[in-house]
From TrEMBL:
Protein name in the entry: Protein hydE
Start and end residues of each stretch annotated as Disordered: 258-293
Highest taxon, organism lineage: Bacteria
Ranges of biased composition (kind: Polar residues): 259-290
Protein source organism: Helicobacter mustelae (strain ATCC 43772 / CCUG 25715 / CIP 103759 / LMG 18044 / NCTC 12198 / R85-136P)
Length: 585
């Protein structure tokens, strides 16, 4: 009998752990197998693993792989089907067998409790000195925990050199297990699921407010142990009731380090590398005054080479509906980014579109916000976004709106200090085409910033604190001028925010409303454009999408009959020069 196990792959190159588990398990049970790949489409591909087995052998195989195949952001199981034969199928050439069991979650648990197994996966392993016995390992782990509590531990991990500490706070936190994440952070079930996936990507999460002082901030980049040694160290820390450590990256990490590409230990003579961290008095030099730059040249106290596959470092954002976006940007120009999605934009449901126009939408924290209609670098803007970030000028525009002058009078009566600050501003306009940049005006007028800061992110930071799912309605209005051109009536955004400030609405609720209403306005606007121009595909990109609150809202209000093309891995936004303004493409 032939059984076809079907899997959906989001990335063929990143699915090697799946292939290894299937090959290894079939080989362990002495079963013949073959495989094939379907046609690649939109970076997705169907994968078929064919097992030649009796019914009971197939069930044993299926039971074995179900306990080994991890949750992944790149592959998932689809179905099992029985086939008559493989005559009409193009089979892939057989790959080499893995020399030892793939390092999945089940194997990791076995390795943690078996030193002889550990040596097969981590070799060499040095924790202050070469680790050659279970006793040496336990003693070294105790010393690691002491350093974590009192100062810091430097580890040459599979993702580069990192400093771990219970005391040296940073905006990156390594939690030792998922239970600890759920204890300290506000995390949705899908976020937790993918944080614990095989790839162990990082995610930005908000701490529960009661723990804000403990972490030093509410917003943190969170990790789970991403290699074998960190899993072992984490298990030891949890026994000592240490749920997390702060993590600081000490090198410009690019690729995962494993036995094939890792540099040799700098000190393998048996003296250990801990001496490199001590001065003549024997005191550790990683005191609280050291910055990451001061520590970059220090040798790691822990060094190892891990055999087998090592997932690379990546950061993702997970939407409420399960959509996963990678936060890596593209070094190039916006037309190259659009071209990378050209195939996807030209088809829907595998059928070529007749309409030769696309809608391209950019929501970026760094570049102009735009809505372009066209194709192949011939685009026209369908929405005017020419904003002024001078609060004094925006206030003058609000006065010309019906009842605006009365609102301004009441607002300044309630907040007289703000009137003085706004009056002190120069008269010259501060033009921008970036809507996110305009939020700096909202931050200033609302009093979230003492002085005007053109790079303020306080509205975003406040919105992250909000724990509910609906904010007050902020007035985003798209109007048509006398020439028939559409434009955003942006002074009304500030006007409605000022009204809510007079009503005493708190900063988290009000700031969340800014993003909630923005998603609703532009979701409806996209729907209108798609109907008017018979569009089926819309490419939306920009690093504002890495903010979960906005990603959730734009997807929630997106028209259901339109196919949203979200940026591929590595194409979230266009990288800009160090000194470029928010209006530079």
């Amino acid at each position: 009998m032939i059984f076809a196990f079907k899997f959906a792959l989001a990335n063929k190159e990143r699915a090697s752990i799946l292939f290894e588990i299937l090959y290894f398990q079939a080989n362990t049970l002495g079963l013949e197998f073959a495989e094939s790949f379907g046609e690649e489409w939109e970076e997705k591909i169907d994968y078929y693993f064919y097992l030649f087995a009796k019914q009971e052998e197939m069930l044993e195989f299926a039971d074995a792989i179900s306990s080994r195949i991890p949750i992944s952001i790149y592959f998932q199981f689809d179905s099992i089907k029985e086939l008559e034969d493989l005559r009409d199928l193009e089979l892939a050439p057989k790959r080499p067998m893995p020399p030892f069991p793939p390092l999945d979650a089940k194997v990791i648990q076995e390795v943690i409790g078996d030193f002889s197994l550990l040596q097969g996966y981590l070799s060499p392993l040095e924790i202050f000195a070469p680790i050659l016995s279970p006793t040496a390992l336990q003693n070294a782990l105790k010393k690691c925990i002491e350093l974590l509590r009192e100062d810091a531990l430097i580890v040459r991990s599979t993702r580069g050199k990192v400093l771990l500490s219970c005391k040296k706070k940073s905006k990156q936190v390594l939690f030792w297990d998922l239970s600890s994440v759920k204890t300290y952070m506000r995390v949705e079930s899908l976020q937790a699921q993918f944080l614990a996936s095989y790839e162990k990507p990082s995610q930005d999460l908000c701490a529960k407010e009661v723990f804000a002082e403990e972490f030093g901030t509410l917003f943190l980049e969170c990790f789970l142990p991403y290699d074998l040694f960190l899993s072992i160290l984490g298990a030891a820390c949890l026994k000592q009731e240490i749920g997390y450590v702060f993590l600081t990256q000490l090198d410009n990490f690019q690729e995962p380090l494993n036995a094939k590409n890792s540099p040799k230990a700098q000190n393998s003579s048996g003296q250990g590398s801990a001496n490199n961290l001590e001065n003549s008095s024997g005191q550790n030099t990683t005191n609280a005054g050291n910055s990451p730059e001061d520590l970059r040249d220090l040798s790691p106290q822990v060094f190892y080479e891990q055999k087998g596959q090592v997932p690379p470092k990546e950061k993702i954002v997970v939407a409420q509906n399960g959509v996963i976006l990678h936060t890596k940007s593209f070094r190039g120009n916006v037309f190259e980014l659009i071209a990378a999605h050209e195939k996807t934009l030209s088809f829907v449901n595998n059928k070529r579109l007749q309409n030769d126009k696309n809608l391209i939408v950019c929501f970026s924290k760094n570049h102009p916000t735009f809505f372009w209609l066209g194709k192949e670098e011939k685009y026209q803007s369908v929405l005017g976004l020419e904003l002024d970030c001078n609060a004094k000028n925006v206030i003058e525009k609000i006065k010309k709106i019906p009842h605006g002058e009365k609102l301004i009078k009441n607002f300044f009566a309630e907040f007289p200090e703000m009137q003085k600050k706004i009056s002190a501003l120069p008269d010259a306009p501060m033009p921008t085409r970036n809507l996110f940049a305009f939020f700096s005006v909202l931050s200033f007028v609302a009093g979230y910033e003492e002085e005007y800061n053109p790079h303020s992110t306080r509205v975003l930071e406040n919105a992250r604190k909000y724990v509910r799912d609906k904010g007050p309605r902020i007035d985003y209005k798209i109007l048509k001028d006398e020439k028939g051109h559409l434009f955003l009536d942006y002074p009304k955004i500030l006007r409605s925010m000022m009204s809510f400030l007079l009503a005493g609405v708190d900063e988290a609720t009000l700031s969340y409303g800014v993003f909630d209403s923005m998603g609703e306005c532009f979701g409806n606007f996209i729907q209108d454009l798609c109907v008017n121009f018979s569009l089926q595909n819309v490419l939306i990109f920009g690093n504002l999408l890495e903010e979960k609150i906005f990603l959730d809202k734009i997807l929630h209000y997106a028209p259901r009959q339109v196919n949203f093309v979200l940026p591929k891995n590595g194409f979230l936004d266009v990288q800009r020069g160090k000194n470029a303004s928010r209006d530079a493409l």
